[in-house]
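Bench log, entry 3. Co-assembly request; chain sequences pasted below exactly as received.
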Amino acid sequence: MDDHALLKKITILDFMLTDIGLYLNTHPNDKEALQKYNCIVEEAQKVRCEYEKICGPLVSFRSEGTHGWKWKNCPWPWEEEFNFKLRGDR
Amino acid sequence: MWVYEKKLEYPVKIKTCSPKLAKIIITQYGGPDGELGASLRYLSQRFTMVTSEAKAVLNDIGTEELAHLEMIGSIVTQLTRDATPEQLRQAGLDASYVDHGYGIYPQNAGGTPFSAETIQSTGNPIADLYEDMAAEQKAKATYEYLLNLIDIPEVADPIRFLREREVVHFQRFGESLRYVQEYYDSSRQFVIPKPEYMK
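Structure output for the full assembly:
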């Protein structure tokens, strides 16, 4: 999978986690939501690993610098080139 | 503490040059109902909030608003990066250009710099949560006005996402308010100190 496709996948998964996580703050006993959250966390971890292997770290102080220091590499998220197209391909 | 993840919460991919849209969208960066104010407000209010639910909500929504601030900054910079100074002037951005060049500066659509006077942190959990609900409605209204003026799909798309998040945030603050009200109605009411004038 190419880098934009992986970025799209992790963006979607992390957003779902953010949203369900916010919901769980006020509905901590919702077992269905918690189950969904835990499933997605597992998948997100896998995608994150795959993404970081190809594109470099997502967090500066968390990933291993196995192929040199890739953190500072361009493009950065606020640049057009960094982002994937939501509909259709790049 | 904060961790920065090197990605946007929602993609911003704009190839069009439109200083006239940048001029109005900046208001959600540094305007009265923008994301900077929202994040500062919630992250400040959380220090005096009660109930774990409300503290978590303020913490997490405050954090998400920083991600939204980043999106707005990205939108504005992508809209102006290819513009000439003359194009900026034609869009009414000459005054801003003179003080900030192509820089992203926290200001409203009229050029007024961001002010903490547009937010409050009263230290009173009930007052703060009502303010937060109002804040989300104001932000939603602003996004709706913006969408009425945006005619480019690649710009409307992330703005529409941001508007939808305001609806969810409003819901969460409403739920937090209920937790806080229950907390004060319960037998643990002794934790509220009597105001000086009532002693």
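The longest helix of chain B spans residues 153-185. Residues 129 and 177 of chain B are 6 Å apart (CA to CA).
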